[in-house]
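Project outcomes to date are best conveyed with an example. Our students and postdoctoral researchers have been running inverse folding experiments weekly, and each run begins with a structure described purely in tokens. The record below, which covers 306 residues, was selected by the lab manager from last quarter's runs and is presented without edits.
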């Protein structure tokens, strides 16, 4: 089992003829993902690694006998991302992974609001996507298929990370310790994203394969506070291990480092406050990445014993 995607998920890539998208498409195909069409306006009739290119998502639907793709990977430039996402949602696509970064916040807010109203889910923006080890890769997560196969292996640990690269780093660390992953999600590093830790937690809770969660997080924003509240109120069955990056930012309020969401606006946004809140909710916080596998095994052992 998995969350969000599985081996039957059929994908479309919007912006497929762009340089990044061409490489991303090959990576997904090599990993075994089912890419049923690509979209770049004005490029209908071409193909990318054997994937037919169309002018619109609706043309992809028609080409596939009226069957709507389950998901879309959006790689178009920031100024056109909102139009691409709205087109996918209007066509009935239920899952949209937005790779593009530097999208205006107003556009992101409108995309997320429309997705919510249409029962669609957005992952990102500014993310690398989702992977179910040995099953499907949606987005650039893990890089080329042979590299993704080394870093990600099937197992009981769900991974969520604001950093795309650290999604793979953490999963690789778990794999090296004999702990595979159920699903790994790069949720995106922007201030506004489509699916937060809290919004993905019920999916992991319902997934029988997932027996623990690891999250990689950063200062800035309120996602950790929301997660802590959800875990407490819902008495989550899943042991959670977290790693908080950027503790040095506590001494630099108002500064932005790396991700757009990594801005400490007040005391509640600091790493120290977030760590305290996570621990109060029963979430174990690792001091170093290398500690994570041992802490996961310890928490899994405690869960079995109880």
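After processing, the design step wrote out the following sequence:
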């Amino acid at each position: 089992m998995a969350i969000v995607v599985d081996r039957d998920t059929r994908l479309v890539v919007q912006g497929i003829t762009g340089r990044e998208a061409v490489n991303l498409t090959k990576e997904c195909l090599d990993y075994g993902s089912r890419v049923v069409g690509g979209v770049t306006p004005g490029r209908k009739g071409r193909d990318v690694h054997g994937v037919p290119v169309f002018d619109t998502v609706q043309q992809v639907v028609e080409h596939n006998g009226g069957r709507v793709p389950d998901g879309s990977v959006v790689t178009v430039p920031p100024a056109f991302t909102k139009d691409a996402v709205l087109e996918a949602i209007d066509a009935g696509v239920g899952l949209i992974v937005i790779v593009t970064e530097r999208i205006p916040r107003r556009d992101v807010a409108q995309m997320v609001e429309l997705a919510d109203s249409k029962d669609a889910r957005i992952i990102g923006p500014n993310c690398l996507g989702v992977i179910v080890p040995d099953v499907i890769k949606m987005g650039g997560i893990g890089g080329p298929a042979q590299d993704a196969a080394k870093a990600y292996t099937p197992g009981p640990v769900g991974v969520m990370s604001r950093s795309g690269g650290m999604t793979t780093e953490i999963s690789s660390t778990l794999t090296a310790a004999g702990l595979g992953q159920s699903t790994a999600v790069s949720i995106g590093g922007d201030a506004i994203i489509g699916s937060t830790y809290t919004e993905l937690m019920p999916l992991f809770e319902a997934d029988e394969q997932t027996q623990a969660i690891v999250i990689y997080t950063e200062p800035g924003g309120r996602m950790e506070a929301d997660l802590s509240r959800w875990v407490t109120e819902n008495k989550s069955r899943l042991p959670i291990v977290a790693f908080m990056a950027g503790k040095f930012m506590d001494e630099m309020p108002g500064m932005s480092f790396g991700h757009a969401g990594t801005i400490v606006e007040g005391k509640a946004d600091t790493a120290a406050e977030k760590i305290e809140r996570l621990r109060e909710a029963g979430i174990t916080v690792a001091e170093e990445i290398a500690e994570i596998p041992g802490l996961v095994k310890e928490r899994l052992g405690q869960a079995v014993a109880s």
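The CA atoms of residues 47 and 185 lie 28 Å apart. The longest helix spans residues 78-91. The training component of this project remains on track.
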